[in-house]
Amino acid sequence: MNDGDYYGEWLHRGCGGNLIILIDAGKKTVEGKEIEGLVFKLKCTKCPYESEFAFLGFEGLEEEGDEE
């Protein structure tokens, strides 16, 4: 695989397995905090590695031309 190529999977450096990305929308509890947005969960196909992170969205950011 060359740098910049995308094959839809990531390799887990720890064991060489593939990391699968699961995406869920809605309210989730992540690290003890309830959030609303997208929650991404990485799971390895070869070992028990799992990781979770959240994208909280663009709340509070104004689009160009929004002046209220």
Question: Would you write up a description of this structure?
Answer:
The protein has 68 residues and is mainly beta. The protein has a domain at 10-55. It has no helices and 4 strands. It has strands at 10-11, 18-30, 33-44, 50-55. Strands 1-2-3-4 form a 4-stranded antiparallel beta sheet, with no helix packed on it. The N and C termini lie far apart (49 Å).
Relevant terms:
four-stranded antiparallel beta sheet; 4 strands; 49% strand; mainly beta; elongated; disordered N terminus
Describe the SSE topology.
Elements: E1 10-11, E2 18-30, E3 33-44, E4 50-55
Antiparallel strand pairs: 1-2, 2-3, 3-4
The dominant shape is: elongated
Amino-to-carboxy terminus distance: 49 Å
Largest sheet: 4 strands, antiparallel
User: For the CA atoms, what is the radius of gyration?
Assistant: 16 Å
Portion of residues in beta strands equals over 45%
Helix % is: under 10%
Q: Catalogue the unreliable spans.
A: 1-7
Mean pLDDT: 72
Secondary-structure element sequence?
A: EEEE
The spatial strand order of the largest sheet comes to 1-2-3-4
Number of strands: 4
What's the assembly state of these chains? single chain
Structural class: mainly beta
Instruction: Supply the number of helical segments.
Output: 0
Quick structural gist:
With 68 residues, this protein is an all-beta fold. Helix content is 0%, strand content 49%. Strands 1-2-3-4 form a 4-stranded antiparallel β-sheet, with no helix packed on it.
